[in-house]
């Protein structure tokens, strides 16, 4: 019996690992053709000003429409893009698309519209990288730096190399704003908040999820909000799904909310309609 169980375990695990590795190899291969094949698409999710319901901001979230597999989550393919170096070209595409759409919305909907885009650590830190190209492109579109926010994760600031501080200074010089994504999940060494020029803290979804009066997540969220405001940062709560969460966050003074309560991330045509039709849908 022991022998049988052992053999079962063996034959169960080995092929699974092989399948996973093979799957990653195949996906990475497909990823090489995805840009050329125009298989990427940017979705937009509104970021809502909680006190007024105004929507002058959105986060750009990439989707990969795989010809055979359908939509592949960025959680699955961004790590592969990082490992293969393809993240550089994908990031450049995300930037150009974000600039293109923010230009439209600034002209036609709100003059102060802002799009946030995500940069993975490898993308942000890569050697020789510079925002000079971004700046030139923004100038060509007559867009100020404040049209864009770059979302990075706090882990980057922990082992802040000079490359990281250089990049942050470049962003600052360009007028592009910076948000700390998933705040509270990493090793939040708070001293970095005064060392670096950050504009927004995004409270991670794991805090929002369990918000209730007198809960520990409520206490943590309130503390984050008070601290952020003293440091002159705005706070965005991620993953707002219920009216109760929204009300608790608003009462705690949270500046912005993002989540399924307001809207899921949408394809650009749908988001464009949403923005024009429902400028203030959630007051
Ligand atoms: P993130 O930057 O923290 O983005 C928020 C994620 O939460 C998104 O997942 C969004 O769809 C999801 N979300 C928003 N509201 C709710 C809610 O109310 N409930 C729940 N359960 N989820 C909500 P998504 O689009 O799958 O993106 C996952 C991650 O992939 C992002 O996390 C970001 O780290 C990364 N990512 C997405 N687009 C890009 C990109 O263009 N470049 C890079 N480097 N990373 C990206
Ligand atoms: Mg983000
Ligand atoms: Mg986030
Ligand atoms: Mg997140």
Automatic annotation (TrEMBL):
Residues 24-279 form the EAL domain. It comes from the Bacteria. This is EAL domain-containing protein. It comes from Duganella callida. The lineage of its organism: Bacteria, Pseudomonadati, Pseudomonadota, Betaproteobacteria, Burkholderiales. The chain holds residues 621 to 903 of 903 of the full protein.
């Amino acid at each position: 019996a022991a022998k049988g169980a052992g053999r079962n375990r063996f034959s169960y695990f080995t092929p699974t690992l092989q399948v996973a590795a093979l799957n990653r190899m195949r996906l990475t291969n497909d990823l090489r053709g995805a840009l050329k094949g125009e298989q990427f698409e940017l979705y937009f999710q509104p970021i809502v000003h909680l006190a007024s319901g105004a929507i002058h901001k959105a986060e750009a979230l990439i989707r990969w429409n795989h010809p055979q597999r359908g939509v592949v989550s960025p959680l699955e393919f961004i790590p592969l893009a990082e490992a293969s170096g393809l993240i550089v070209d994908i990031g450049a595409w995300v930037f150009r698309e974000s600039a293109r759409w923010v230009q439209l919305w600034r002209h036609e909907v709100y003059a102060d519209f802002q799009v946030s885009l995500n940069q993975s650590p490898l993308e942000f830190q890569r050697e020789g990288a510079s925002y000079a190209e971004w700046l030139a492109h923004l100038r060509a579109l007559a867009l100020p730096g404040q049209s864009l926010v770059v979302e990075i994760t706090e882990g980057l600031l922990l082992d802040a190399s000079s490359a990281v501080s250089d990049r942050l200074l470049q962003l600052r010089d360009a007028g592009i704003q910076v948000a700390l994504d998933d705040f509270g999940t990493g090793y939040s060494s708070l001293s970095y908040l005064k060392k670096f020029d950050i504009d927004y803290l995004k409270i991670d979804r794991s805090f929002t999820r369990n918000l209730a009066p007198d809960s520990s997540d409520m206490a943590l969220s309130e503390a984050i909000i008070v601290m952020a405001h003293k440091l002159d940062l705005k706070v965005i709560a991620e993953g707002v799904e219920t009216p109760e969460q929204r009300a608790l966050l608003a009462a705690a003074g949270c500046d912005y909310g993002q989540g399924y309560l307001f809207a899921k991330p949408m394809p650009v045509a749908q988001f464009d309609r949403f923005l024009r039709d429902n400028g203030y849908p959630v007051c």
